[in-house]
Amino acid sequence: MARRTATLTDPVLAAARDAAHAEVMAAARKFELAATWAAMHPAPVTDPVVTATGVVEMYGDQPVTLAGEGAPGMSEFAVAEFAAAIGISTRAGRDLIGAALECRHRLPRTWARVMAGEVPVWKVRRLTEQTHRLPPPGAAYVDRHLAPVLDSCSFAQIERAVETACAQTEDEKAELDRLDAAATEFFQVRLGDAHLNHGRVPVDGLLDYPVALALEQALQAGSHHLLTEHPDLSLDQRRALALGHLAASGSESAGVAEVVVYAHHTPAEGHGIVDVEKLGHTTIEQLTDWCRHLATRVTIRPVLDLGAELTTDAYTPTVLQREQAVLTNPTCVFAHCARSARGCDLDHIEPWDPSGAGGATTSWNLAPLCRLHHRMKTHGHWTYRRLTRTRFEWTSPSGDVYDVDRTLTRRRTR
């Protein structure tokens, strides 16, 4: 489709237009390279390891499907390597490569316009978010009707085109609707947004009617019982408090011993700001309120020397070693990974050998890795070495070197 371009006489405006076009073309080139990398690293053929209890365990590289029906799969480890190369997290790399595969293999007309710089990648990615669930005829319908006008389409128009595509593929629409309905139930406790709401956590979800009805009845009963004890609170506040009581009683029945909030404070710094893991900074007053609210036990742990070299003869790190490793590096130490170290494996940087020929279980030889990056280090030919307590040098299978420095994310504990 021909495009008329205005003639700009001002050199600054002309240079800005050229820079904007170069940015569009650079994004298209990266999009193309993402699809090319996927083609270079097809899904590996693996035999699943099944335990005696029937659980499938994943050790080495695994095949992953990142786009809709008809698009090829690829190597899971290769996704992480591409993401590291362009400076994004593995999760973001999955999304980018998935969008590229969806566009290249299922939306060929749209792909051609992206490669020509006529449609920006960011808009195409909003389209692929909608089309990946469609069967091939539906994706082809969307591509045929939207590709010529996608550069001027709104997001609402994109969504309507996808809905029409579902109707055009009526033979598969019922199954799509059924799968979509089953996938719409969710319940989110958005802990990551607590710092935006002064320590209050947004909660939202979409529940099946009987479940929602049971929850509503429990909240009504709970808020009514709290009226005598808290007559000054509004109904909404009492409902929130009732939900907290419900969670506490559920934890007890489920065998959950305690809810732990990790807070770190250095009194010598002379301010009332506390660093709370997974939340950020809050005040001592707020922390005090939390301790009074539903808490059954408050534990204050002594300062842990992060520079101490702790050692054990066993393979499994001690509780103190794990705590020291988590406080030293609060996230997975792989490049661009932000997974909390609390949920990570504690890896022996130099593999442990009970004969003493390998790495020992010492503070210097332990670092937190999320399960994917731990598997990549063990089975995917990635290597790394420790340079300082919070700095690591990773080497990819291709020989690329990544300097990962966690110094600025280190928690203040002393």
Short structural summary:
The protein is of the alpha+beta class. The protein has helices at 11-40, 76-85, 90-106, 108-115, 121-131, 136-146, 155-168, 170-183, 209-229, 235-253, 284-292, 319-328, 371-379; strands at residues 49-50, 56-57, 63-64, 74-75, 186-189, 203-206, 263-264, 273-276, 280-283, 311-312, 345-348, 361-362, 366-369, 383-388, 391-395, 401-405.
Q: What can you see in these coordinates?
A:
It is a single chain. By secondary structure, the protein is α+β, with helices and mostly antiparallel strands. The chain has four domains: about 10-185, no CATH class; about 205-255, no CATH class; about 260-300, no CATH class; about 310-410, no CATH class. It is built from 13 helices and 16 strands. Strands 7-8-9 form a three-stranded antiparallel β-sheet. Strands 14-15-16 form a three-stranded antiparallel β-sheet, with no helix packed on it. The termini are far apart. Residues about 410-414 have low confidence and may be disordered.
Question: Topology of this protein?
Answer:
Blueprint: H1 11-40, E1 49-50, E2 56-57, E3 63-64, E4 74-75, H2 76-85, H3 90-106, H4 108-115, H5 121-131, H6 136-146, H7 155-168, H8 170-183, E5 186-189, E6 203-206, H9 209-229, H10 235-253, E7 263-264, E8 273-276, E9 280-283, H11 284-292, E10 311-312, H12 319-328, E11 345-348, E12 361-362, E13 366-369, H13 371-379, E14 383-388, E15 391-395, E16 401-405
Antiparallel strand pairs: 1-2, 3-4, 5-6, 7-8, 8-9, 10-12, 11-13, 14-15, 15-16
Helix pairs in contact: 1-3, 2-3, 3-4, 3-5, 5-7, 6-7, 9-10
